[in-house]
Amino acid sequence: MADAHDLPWQEIDTVLLDMDGTLLDLHFDARFWKEHFPRRYRELSGLSEDEAAARLMARFEGLRGQLAWYCLDDWHRALAPDCRNGLDLVELKRELAHHIGYREGVPEFLDALAGAGKHRVLVTNAHPASVDLKFEHVDLKARLDRIFNAHHIGAAKEATVFWDRLAERLAFDPDRTLLVDDNLVALDAARDFGIRHLRAISRPDSRGDPMETAPFVALDDFLAAVRTLTDE
To answer: Which residues contact 3 (CB under 8 A, 6 or more apart)?
Structure first.
């Protein structure tokens, strides 16, 4: 059984990196969507707890894995009419923004990739406004070479077409590319596209329970990855 540290760095030129749950601790997003947003939506809409929960659950379950699930504009169009004074999801996220932060070892890992001459590319499903908010609280943008957003590409990473369209915008050899992502469906799609090196994240939320990542090996210790990278 291979482990995360078996990566043949000499055979990798491009490192594609997810943001939420991979580079950044998913605790912020988990707390926002599971606790903060449902509570604030109830307050702003005046709906009963059961009715508000039913409306949110219908959207969560109906859109999961689709680009619309990640789109703050779609959430606004669907739910703002319920709220007498409107609904600004970015401002609601700002109320919890002090929880935005890196996963352990990520800055060192990104710097080591740069030192080894690897191309660091962010590939994210997050809405651009959410990405901008994260960039206000961590210096992630300065540690990346390129950024690609599913909302600009027009498909979520769970769809193979995302990877087809990415290849039209970014010159990379799938056989010499690593993708690190906590989204197993996205990893499946990337594998179908032909990306050779794939790593999952087993504990995207530092305060949550670990998840099963099979058939993908998990790369959870970024500091250990730094050591293997600098030893090459």
So the answer is: 217
The residues, any chain, with a CB within 8 Å of residue 85's CB and separated by 6 or more, are: 44
How confident is the model at residue 62, as a pLDDT?
A: 66
187-210 tens-digit pLDDT: 999 999 999 999 999 999 999 999
The low-confidence residues of the chain, meaning pLDDT below 50, are 1-2
Q: How far apart (Å, rounded) are the C-alpha atoms in residues 184 and 189? A: 9
Helices (H), the chain: 27-31, 37-45, 49-63, 72-79, 89-94, 106-115, 128-137, 150-153, 160-169, 184-193, 222-231
Per the DSSP assignment, residues forming a β-bridge with 177 are 14
- CB-CB neighbours of 66 under 10 Å: 15
Q: How far apart are CA 3 and CA 115, in angstroms?
A: 23
**Who's near 205: CB < 8 A, 6+ residues apart?**
21, 25, 26, 27, 30
Query: What residue type is assigned to position 107 of the chain?
Result: P
Give the model confidence (pLDDT) of 27-47 as tens digits. Answer: 999 999 999 989 998 989 888
